[in-house]
Amino acid sequence: MDWLKNWNEALDELERNLEGTIDTETLGRLAGCSAYHFQRMFPYLAGVPLSEYIRRRRMTRAAADLQNGEKVLDVALRYGYESPTSFNRAFQAVHGIPPSHAKQMGVKLKAFPRVHFKFVLKGAEEMEYQIVKREAFRIVGFRTLLPMEVEESFQVVPKFWAEIGPQQAELVPLMNGETAGILGVCTCCEEENYYYIAVASSAPALEGMHEWTVPAATWAVFTGTGRLPDAMQELQRRIVSEYLPDSGYEWAKAPDIEVYLTPPGEESRFQVWLPVIKR
Length: 279
Fold this sequence. Notes:
Elements: H1 2-16, H2 24-31, H3 35-46, H4 50-67, H5 72-78, H6 84-95, E1 129-134, E2 137-146, H7 150-164, E3 182-186, E4 193-200, E5 210-214, E6 217-226, H8 230-243, E7 249-251, E8 256-260, E9 268-278
Antiparallel strand pairs: 1-6, 2-4, 2-5, 3-4, 3-8, 6-9, 7-9, 8-9
Helix pairs in contact: 1-2, 2-3, 4-6
């Protein structure tokens, strides 16, 4: 499968650069997606954020180097740490001991092997989806600037929902577009990446709101139910790890959309719109 081959080639590139600079743009290109989407997909596939995976792999190598008698400062510099203090902090976070103790005979260390992606047959739990082409449409709502580091953005978005809170009620009268529900839209722009809590609307933006045009694109639309945000996150994980690898599609450079069809509850109804292009 080309998808698996591409992702494993990206991990080969990562391994080759553990002692240097790891370029997410290159990793994304090898995997067949953008740097942003590579970082976003990685934790769904590997079960750990990309930055944490890199740290674990570097500290696994560092422990072996130290046990071979190399100096702490030399090893720290090799893996991109400019000071022994920052290296000590990272090493202890992984191994639970300072790097100076790693040289001792009989000390317990942790090894985190390199990830290899492979196709695994799982239980036949269905996933209901539609491939939908949509013309460009306008949204109106509240927005926040997202950091380009995906792991940081995962922290920003829940806080933004909490901050907006009751203001979501102001969006409902503006809703007059074809797409129903409250939308969570990540613009996925490489220059400035925004997250919108918005509705599809032709109405003027009220004070404190912003408008934006979602470009024409093709989406794989998945519908789910359950308690938020856990049910949404589980659906997103399954889309990336189970649907996408064998679908004949890849993640397109277009906005990601979450559609909240009902208020939060035990059986909330929602959709995930994944932008796709044919491989």
